[in-house]
Structure formats: C-alpha cells, structure tokens
User: Fold this.
Amino acid sequence: MIEVSPSVLAADPMRLEEELAGMIRAGCGRIHLDIMDGHFVPNLSFGPALLTAIRKSFPHTPVDAHLMVDNPESFVRIFAEAGADTVVFHLEAARDADALIDGIHASGAKAGISLRPQTGEETLRPFLDGIEQVLVMTVNPGFGGQKMMPDMLRKAAWLRQACGWRGDIAVDGGINAQNAPDALKAGANILVMGTALFRAADPAGVIAGVKAWA
Ligand code: DX5
Ligand code: ZN
Assistant:
C-alpha cells in the first residue's frame, strides 16, 4: 500500500487543520510530524501537544512522529502516549536502540528508525526484526525545501533486496512528483512530502499521479 504523508512542517501553521483536512481529502492516508530539538538538528519545531491535537481532529489518520532529537530515551514514550501510530527515532542519537524499541512498543505504538544521509544502511541490520518502519532521510535533517539526494534510495533497495525486509519504508526530504517513481521503484511505500505537496497548485493531482504509478 503506497501512502503519501504530508509533512506538517510545510503547512501554514495558522491554517493547519484546514490544510491537513485538504490533504486527507486529496488522498493522503497518514501524517508526518517532525520533532526537532535544536541540538540533534539546528532547528526547532513541534511538541507532543500538537500531536494530540492532530489526533483529536483526525482520529482515523495515523501519524508518524519523526524525532530528530538528542536523548530520544526521554521522548519516545511521550510521543507514543500523545497518539503517534509510529514513533521514529534516529539511530545516531540512540544510546540503546533495543531499549527504545521496547519502550515504544510497551507504550502501544509502532517503532521506526531513521538514518541521516551520512549513516550507512548496514547499521540497521541488528534492529530490522524488531521494528515496523525505516525512515530513510533523503536530505540532511532539519529543514524542509531541500533537494533530494538520489543516492539515498540505495538504502531502500538494500532493505528490500539484500534483506528481504517487508516493513514500511518511508523516504523523507525533497520528494516530489518527479522523483517519487524512483523512490517507489527502490522499495519505498511511504512518501513524505512537504514542499511538493503544500506548494502544489493541485495536491490531489500530485497524489493521484504518484499512486497511479504504483
Ligand atoms: C526534514 C524533515 C522533512 C521535511 C520534508 O528534516 O524531516 O519531513 O519536512 O519537507 P520537504 O518535502 O519540503 O523536503
Ligand atoms: Zn521528517
């Protein structure tokens, strides 16, 4: 199942509910919420209160909480309890990834791991049996509106081909209608889109085009 996941970071914060409702009407089946702490990445974004509010407005749409934070140990349970369907932490920030995965599952959410562009895909191998999602960063984390790094798609291909992995693979950063087919071909099934969706004249057309390709 191919999903297009709108990144809240690119929405108009003063019209967030309306913008997300529009994206769901246009065909988005999940929502991507970036959590940034100003340490792991040089930017700040949202906290758990927004996640809870989004879940209240859209109870049937799963939300992925993408934690770009140091000390994920202090935060994974908070975001799971705030209503995330999947809590995604960065392997680079984890002291004990197995404990994080267990903590997320114990809070009733699915667990995901994300990698910065510089981090090799082999680092995922010990954790693949225990997680439900891998989120492949296709830009350096921290800001929307960057150019997608095509070489990162090799990580999705490695997961599907070398590992035979069947969990969710999200790609995040600079994904648009033009490069989405390559991401899907590589094995991704969740396309996170910020700028390409919220700045599109016809988001429904973008989403339909991507889903038709699959
Ligand atoms: C970047 C974030 C992305 C970002 C994607 O650090 O993780 O989710 O919002 O936005 P675009 O699609 O504009 O690159
Ligand atoms: Zn993200």
Notes: The mean pLDDT is 98. The beta strands are 3-6, 31-36, 63-68, 86-90, 110-115, 133-137, 168-172, 190-193. The CA atoms of residues 141 and 202 lie 26 Å apart.
